[in-house]
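Request: Give me one sample?
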Amino acid sequence: MPLTRRAALIGAPLFLAGCATQGRLPAPTAATPSIDPRWAAMYGPVEGEPFPVPAVDISEIDPQFLRQEVAYRGAEPAGTLVVDPNRRFLYLVREGNRAIRYGVGVGKQEGFNFQGEATIARKAQWPRWTPTPAMIAREPERYGPYRDGLAGGPTNPLGPRALYLYKDGRDTLYRLHGTTEPWSIGTMVSSGCIRLLNQDIIDLYRRVPTGSRVIVLPAGAAGVA
């Protein structure tokens, strides 16, 4: 299937094994009263987890990157995940020409980004994170101390869930995962993985089974409009 097929989408309210953080910005300001209460509830604290999943301060995030159902007229069947790195969106295609759209953060350099088709071959809750050899070689002082991995938890850069992308039966080392940096959604900051808000990756994790097809459009291509 050509990855540059044009699809029309209209919005409506409703790390590789080594994905990494990029440092923190100053503490966000308090949420303003104008925030839609539906989104405030959607991104509130998540109960019943082994580690805290705090509320997201959505005042620091462009509303277009918050989870919402949209019209979708592409040809992909229901259950397909389509990632548009250019617009920083991930679409979970549904029946009836609809999709759930999530805001994402993508690789900070084009060469760091996976593109093409893959399959979700594994799912993990509170996954372990291990930087890749390339990451350690690139920034040994930063990533070297974690060469043996970091257990799942509130400081783990993969967040509370991870979906592992495989191609032709082999691990691509790219993931769909949560983040410790909610302000980064809608930006190019990761080491190549597709990061979502923690509440969004928990929602997506519940909706997609292993074996689900993922299409990551090429950076710079007009595959999704």
Notes: The first strand starts at residue 9 and ends at 11. Residues 39 and 76 are 28 Å apart (CA to CA). The helical segments are 37-42, 133-138, 140-143, 198-207.
